[in-house]
Amino acid sequence: MSDFDLVIRGGTVVTAADTVRADVGIRSGRIAAVADRLEDGAARVDASGLLVMPGGIDSHVHLAQPAFGGPAMADGFETGTRSAIAGGNTTVIPFALQPRGASLRASVADYHKEADGRSYCDYGFHLIISDPTASVLGQELPALVDDGYTSFKVFMTYDDLVLNDRQLLEVFDCARGCGALVMVHCEGYDAIRFMTERLEQAGRKAPYYHAVSRPESVEREATHRAISHAELTDVPVMIVHVSGREPMEQIRWAQRKGLKVYGETCPQYIALTADDLKGLNMDETGGKYVCSPPPRDHASWEAIWEGIRTGVFQTFSSDHCPFYYEGEQGKLNPKARTSFRWVPNGIPGVETRLPILYSKGVVEGRISLNEFVALTSTNHAKMYGLYPRKGSIAPGFDADLVLWDPNRKETIRQELMHHGADYTPYEGMAVTGWPVATYLRGMLVAEEGRIVGEPGDGGFLKRGLSPYAVPAHGREI
Ligand code: URP
Ligand code: ZN
Ligand code: ZN
Ligand code: ZN
């Protein structure tokens, strides 16, 4: 007998680079060996017929964010990370949001109170900057970056979060100095407000008009503006949750120009359309699908696939941002029934991200297995300073693994989900490929839809600087 704690035997090991039939030996929570045939360890798992892949890393999830006067989120860290591991993920990177007027450091401490001891998987935090004061930019951010919060998110819309162009430039400039990577939510605030008021005046208040209020041109314009500001400040940026052709082409244009502009897309942009927001008959059931940017149409799905296949997008994240559907706290709360403006933005998806991409991507022949792993795990680790600890299967990496049945057919249904929300926007969707078991640092945490891990198994990840955040060249000022 060897000195492995666990040997996963007979599976097909898939990384971003290779697909090989191999055994995986695990010792002290890390991968100790990957080889054709390993001796048994203290324990053995038979993975024949299964794929053994790096656990999913979802670098865009929202958990336990404050309500801002609207409904509370349906997931805190316990239910959100429970849902994550059931869906084959082992790391999530949610956001620590700075409310206006608050210190970022204090906001980060608040999120740690929510997360520490309650998480089923490992986690880091991106910092949402809503109030870039001189002390935030000059003192708080550099110190937080040193402490492992090495990425920021900024918003070009939302009343409570929007930054003006000057503020965006200041944050970009600060990120450059700290070596942080900036994620940008690209939708133009004034255009959305204009459209929202006009639609309301015309009596068009059903959830569907959320999509009408923020068409692709609004996203394209903001994407271009963010890219221009990034060029001016010579700072790399990640354009998140890209919904269709127009913003995708802006990113591609910037990449071809040699700018360090990266892209993220999400399941809703290859699986939902704006028509879903119409509900049954332009009724409030459309509220289930309200998220920003909104899902578009079938031609947009094809444009997103084009961006995935040609490397415009590096990461495929869920943008899990769950709200209840029913009840006073739900998407359908009394205020939300008066106008789409008040329907909370966001949908659950951390548990369904892998099956949706696997099914539509790998099974339907659009991407390879290795691209699947890159898009769901490896590239997230590299982009956000977790590599080479997370995101691959090789000696020294954390033994974060998902055992995947490539042939399992499932129909996505709320009753299968482990999230806090009372619905899934993907209800009824047939998929092929499903997680069978999830291992966090060598511990079995989820198996066949059962949670066997515990809150507190997951720990905080102090992330390194992103190698993607290095500026392209020197600057005169
Ligand atoms: O609708 C969405 N996506 N809500 C989450 C917040 C964000 O912008 O990512
Ligand atoms: Zn620093
Ligand atoms: Zn966003
Ligand atoms: Zn988001």
TrEMBL record:
EC code? 3.5.2.2
Q: Name one GO molecular function term.
A: dihydropyrimidinase activity
Q: What class of enzyme is it?
A: hydrolase
Alphabetical list of InterPro entries matching this protein:
Amidohydro-rel (IPR006680), Hydantoinase/dihydroPyrase (IPR011778), Metal-dep_hydrolase_composite (IPR011059), Metal_Hydrolase (IPR032466), Metallo-dep_Hydrolases_sf (IPR050378)
Does the keyword Transport belong to this entry?
A: no
Enumerate the cofactors the protein uses: Zn(2+)
Locate the coiled-coil region(s) and give their ranges.
none
Quote the PANTHER family the UniProt record gives: COLLAPSIN RESPONSE MEDIATOR PROTEIN, HYDRANTOINASE/DIHYDROPYRIMIDINASE FAMILY MEMBER
Family stated for the protein in its record: Belongs to the metallo-dependent hydrolases superfamily. Hydantoinase/dihydropyrimidinase family.
> What name does this protein carry?
Dihydropyrimidinase
Organism classification, top ranks? Bacteria, Pseudomonadati, Pseudomonadota, Alphaproteobacteria, Rhodospirillales
